[in-house]
Amino acid sequence: MKQIGHFIDGQLVAGTSGRTKDIFNPNTGDVQAQVNMATPAELDAAVKSAAEAQIAWMKTNPQKRSRVMFAYKQLVEAHMDELAAMLSSEHGKVLADSRGDVIRGIDVIEFACGVPHGQKGEHTYGAGPEIDVYSMRKPLGVVAGITPFNFPAMIPMWMFGMAIATGNACILKPSEKDPSVPMKLAELFVEAGGPVGLLQCINGDKEIVDAICDHPTIKAVSFVGSSDIAQYVYARATANGKRAQCMGGAKNHGIIMPDANMDQAVKDILGAAYGSAGERCMALPVVVPVGEGTAERFLEKMLPAIEAMKVGVSEDPEADYGPVVTGVHRDSIKAQVTKAVDEGATLLVDGRDFSLQGYEDGFFIGPSLLDNVTSDMETYQDEIFGPVLQIVRAETFEDALRLPSEHQYGNGVAIFTQNGRAAREFADRVEVGMVGINVPIPVPVAYHSFGGWKRSAFGDANQYGMEGLRFYTKVKTVTQRWPEGETDDSAFIIPTF
Question: Using CA atoms, how far apart are residues 257 and 246, in angstroms rounded to an integer?
C-alpha cells in the first residue's frame, strides 16, 4: 500500500502521527494509497523552515523571484501528462478535465511571473516643502493555503503562486482525498530552483486546519471548500488576527431568455452542468428558462443531448465525465435526487442506478435532470455538487433575475440572450460576484480575479490577479524630508559636461 506523508524542508517525510486516511481509485472503488495526518509538531517544523526560507526570499529582488516562477511554469508544463494522470487516478476526472485543471493553475503562475510590475508601489515627489512620500508592498511572511479535492492542481497554484511571487513562504494543506498532485507540485518548485522550505505541503484533517488558524507565525489563510467550513475557518483565522479569504459553496444559475441561441445554450449548459461530474464550484446546476415556450424548446434539445452523453473511466478519451471522488459522495448525490423528488420535483432523467460494466464497484453516477423545481425546495437551496441539473421555470425577466439574487450563494451566474440591453441590465443588477453573458462558466482570466458574494465568499479579497497580490502584501508608506544645513553640501560635486 502506497503511503503518502508530507513535504517538509524540501524532503518527502513519512509522518509520525499513525493516523491515516484512505485514498481511493474512484474508477474501481479500491483503496490505492493512504495519506498520513500531520501532527501540530510537524506543522511547527514546516512553519519554522518556511519562516527561515522566507527571510532570504523576501530580500531577493522581484525580477529574480520572477525568473524562478518562469522556470516553475515551464517545469509544470513539461510534467503535464504525469500530473493529469495522477490527478485522474485520485479524483476521477477524465484526462481532458485534469489537463484543464493543471492549465488553469499554470495561468496564474504565468501572471505571477509579472510580479515586478505589481509590486512597484507609488511615489509622490514634493508632497510638501522638500518632502517626498513613497509606498511599497511588503510580503506578510508565512501564509497558508487550504485547498479542496475538486481542483487539486489549479487551486493550490492560485494560492501559492501569488503568495510566493510576492515574497512570502507558503504552507499548503491539500485535501486528504487527492493529495498526490499538490505534493508533486511542491517537489517541482524545488526542482525549478525555488528555495528549500519556501513551499511546504502538510497533509491533515480538521486538527491541522485548526492548528493553521491558531499558529502565531502564519499571517494569512486562504481557503476553498464548503460554505460552512469556509465560515468556520474565516472566523477562527480572523479571531487570531490573520488575514483570511475563504471561498465557499455555490448554486450557479443559467438564465435562458426567449431569444437565446438554443443550440448553443444547450451545448454550453450540458458541459457546465455535467462536466467533471458536476464537482465544480462554478458548475451550472440550475437552469432558468424564461417563459413556457423557452422551457419546452430547451427540454426538446436537452433531453436527447443528455441521452447521448457517455460516462466512463477517467482514461476513456470519449467519456464526457468519470466517477465522483468517493462512494460517500456518490451516495449523497443520490440521496439529494431522491429528496428533490420527495419535495415535488419531476425527475425527467434518473442517473441514480447507473453502473459501468466492468467497473461496478467504481463511484459512478449517471446524469439526472429535474424539472418543476421551486425556490422553496431544500434541494434547490443546497449545493448538490454532482451531475444533477435542476430546472426552475420563470415567467418574466424579473423573476429570473430574482432567483440568483435572492439565493444564499452568489458565486457565478450566466445569461443566454442575443439582446444586449437585457444582458447589460442583468449583469448590472444581479447580486452575484461573477457573471457570464453567453458564457456558462464565467471564471475570470488570471489577470482579473476570482470571487463570489454572500455565502460563497468570506473576507474582502478575491483570489489571484491584483486582488491576490494585495491580499498577500501589506503597504508601508514612508514620508521623508532632507532639509538644508544638515549635510556637508561641499560633498556634492556638480559634474561638467
Answer: 33
Predicted confidence at residue 95, as pLDDT, reads 97
Q: Which residues on neighbouring strands pair with residue 223, listed in sequence order?
A: 146, 246
**225 grid coordinates:** 471548500
Catalytic residue set? 281
**How far apart are the C-alpha atoms of 211 and 295, rounded to whole Å?**
50
Eight-class DSSP state of 311: B
Neighbouring residues of 89: CB distance < 8 A, sequence distance ≥ 6: 25, 27, 32, 180, 314
Helices (DSSP H) in 6-79: which residue ranges? 40-59, 62-78
Q: How far apart are the C-alpha atoms of 280 and 249, rounded to whole Å?
A: 9
Whole-number Å distance between alpha carbons of 44 and 184? 21
Q: In sequence order, which residues have a C-beta less than 8 Å from that of residue 293 and are 6 or more positions away?
A: 258
CA distance 154 to 157: 5
> What does the angle CA 225 – CA 272 – CA 32 come to, to the nearest 5 degrees?
55
Please state, in angstroms and rounded to a whole number, the distance separating the CA atoms of residues 230 and 180.
Answer: 23
Q: How many residues does the chain have?
A: 497
Residue 70 has pLDDT above 70, yes or no: yes
∠ CA 16-17-21, nearest 5°, is 115
Which one-letter DSSP state was computed for residue 130?
T
DSSP tag of 60 = S
Which residue from 56, 59, 14 is spatially nearest to 37, judged by alpha carbons? 14
Measure the CA–CA gap between 279 and 23, rounded to whole angstroms.
Answer: 17
Question: Taking phi first (over 0 means left), then psi (-120 to 50 degrees means alpha), and beta for anything else, what does residue 492 get?
Answer: beta
**Residue listed under C-alpha cell 503597504:** 475
Can you tell me the distance from the alpha carbon of 228 to that of 206, in angstroms, rounded to the nearest whole number? Answer: 13
Q: 232: which residues sit within 8 A by CB, 6+ positions away?
A: none
Residues 6+ apart with CB under 8 A from 120: none
Residue-wise pLDDT tens digits, 391-443: 999 999 999 999 999 999 999 999 999 999 999 999 999 999 999 999 999 99
- For residue 269, pLDDT over 60 is answered with yes
Is residue 492's pLDDT more than 70? no
Whole-model pTM: value is: 0.94
Q: What does the alpha-carbon distance between residue 51 and residue 84 come to, in Å, rounded to a whole number?
A: 31
Within 344-417, where are the H helices?
378-381, 397-406
Alpha carbons 152 and 414: distance in angstroms, whole number: 25
Residue indicated by cell numbers 518562469: 70
Q: What is the pLDDT of residue 304?
A: 98
Give CA–CA dist 156/184, Å, rounded. 11
| Residue 482 banded pLDDT, cuts 50, 70, 90 | confident
